[in-house]
Amino acid sequence: MKPSIAFFDTKPFDRDFFPNINKRYGYAIDYFENKLTPKTVKLANEHTVICPFVNDTLSAEVIEELHRIGIKLIALRSAGYNHVDLKAAQGKIPVVRVPAYSPRAVAEHAAALMMTLNRKTHRAYYRIRDNNFAISGLMGFDMYGKTAGVIGTGKIGKAIIEILRGFGMTIVAYDAYPDDSYAQAHGFEYHHLDTLYKESDIITLHCPLTPDTKHMINKKSIDTMKKGVMIINTGRGALIDSRDLVEGLKSGSIGSAGLDVYEEESDYFFEDYSSMTITDDILARFLTFPNVLITSHQGFFTREALTAIAETTLENIKLFFEKNELPNEVCAKCG
Ligand code: NAI
After folding, report:
1. What are phi and psi of 304, to 5 degrees?
2. At a CB cut-off of 8 Å and minimum separation 6, what does 335 contact?
3. Catalytic annotation on 186?
4. How far is the CA of 210 from the centre of ligand 1 (A)?
5. How high does pLDDT run on average in the chain?
6. Confidence of residue 267 (pLDDT cuts 50, 70, 90)
7. How much is the pLDDT for 157?
8. What is the distance of C-alpha 41 from the center of its chain?
9. Which residue's alpha carbon is at the smallest distance from atom 17 of ligand 1?
10. Could you confirm whether 206 is annotated as catalytic?
11. 189 an active-site residue?
């Protein structure tokens, strides 16, 4: 029997890309707009696979219930899997992900955040629409010759390094597992985090969220950074202690921040709140700074990436059910 898929947190763009690629597979897919939570998990009844996105809840409680109702596979349509309790899934339901769909998409978005904050095109756009052609307050800096600190030099980190090297920037990198031959080939060096914080004009985060990296950008690390540094986060929100970032922005220690992710994003990102009140005071405070640019977790959002996500997700499901293979498995013991 063919697997049937319960698709959670469906967005209009999912309905464009998945049905098209699914023509090749012919799976029955129920597209639920609800996020996966302990309350909505019952929608997975009578399915064999669930397909969650980044803001779905895969806690021990939810996984236990998925196991009880007979779910055979959790097919994440994301690269990040920090929202999954892998220990709880161990031995119950295998978890697969899309390890790389378009690292360039995310890296190019990080570069867009940098360039917008630097040259203040977000502010120029509104000024000129108001017939205000004055340029004072919009001064930026040459990227050429500046230093970028890249934390995490995996697929996305490497893509941003190549973009920033194109600008003529010096790269100072940090990774828990440095790739020295890549560094040599691309003309940069790995350093300790302390050095990276001290030397960088722009710091961009591309490491996963783990207990080691949670709140790595905090008051203590901000205090060691260059005054006026630009912070870019397209990784995961909780890499940054948001309260400390607000304080850093208020004091001027942080010159600007480009955030595609936010630690409490799950209630807001991807949703239309234009007629509602934002009750998250930190998010509301971020929105008051002219030198903070927030995008709603859209780093991945290109045609190429969405096609690759749909292809890999459906292929992951096929390989498991037809060949018992899990090439893109993530698990507590996988290391
Ligand atoms: P990757 O797995 O290719 O690279 C991650 C790198 O981080 C590896 O080189 C790894 O050695 C390094 N790393 C692991 N622990 C570390 C630590 N404690 N300190 C420093 N480095 C460490 O992952 P990829 O594809 O480059 O993605 C990076 C992150 O970007 C993902 O974990 C995800 O959170 C985020 N992401 C965001 C998207 C968006 O739309 N904004 C889309 C896709 C991914």
Report:
1. -65, -40
2. none
3. no
4. 10
5. 96
6. confident
7. 98
8. 24
9. 176
10. no
11. no
Residue 77 CB neighbour total at 10 angstroms: 26
CA–CA separation, 286 and 283 (whole Å): 5
Which residue's C-alpha comes closest to atom 11 of ligand 1? 177
Q: Which atom of ligand 1 is nearest to the CA of 234?
A: 41
Among 207-211, 232-236, 268-272, the range scoring the smallest mean pLDDT is: 268-272
CA of 322 to the centre of ligand 1 (A): 30
Can you tell me the distance from the alpha carbon of 293 to that of 256, in angstroms, rounded to the nearest whole number? 8
Number of the ligand 1 atom closest to the C-alpha atom of 212: 18
In angstroms, the CA 94 to CA 325 distance is 11
User: Does residue 206 have its Cβ closer than 6 Å to ligand 1?
Assistant: yes
Q: Which two tokens stand for residue 317?
A: 């499901």
Are 15 and 31 in contact by the 8 Å Cβ rule? The answer is yes
Q: Tell me, rounded to whole angstroms, the distance of Cα 235 from its chain centroid.
A: 4
3-state helix, strand, coil in the chain (%, to 5): 40, 15, 45
Q: How far is the CA of 227 from the centre of ligand 1 (A)?
A: 26
Q: Is 156 in the pocket of ligand 1 (CB under 6 A)?
A: yes
Q: In which band, very low, low, confident or very high, does the pLDDT at 193 lie, cut at 50, 70 and 90?
A: very high
- State the Cα–Cα distance between residues 33 and 20, nearest whole angstrom: 19
User: The tokens of 138 are what?
Assistant: 């919009």
pLDDT at 310 over 70: yes
Give the C-alpha separation, 37 to 54, whole Å: 12
Query: Cα of 99 to ligand 1 centre, how many Å?
Result: 10
- Rounded Cα distance between 313 and 52, Å, is 11
> What is the pLDDT at residue 80?
86
Q: Is 54 in the pocket of ligand 1 (CB under 6 A)?
A: no
Q: Which of 83, 206, 236, 315 is catalytic?
A: 236
pTM, whole model, 2 decimals?
0.91
Two structure tokens written together for 294: 């927030």
290 vs 136: CA distance, rounded Å: 14
In this structure, the strands spanning 28-31 and 4-7 are parallel
**Would the pLDDT of 167 be above 70?**
yes
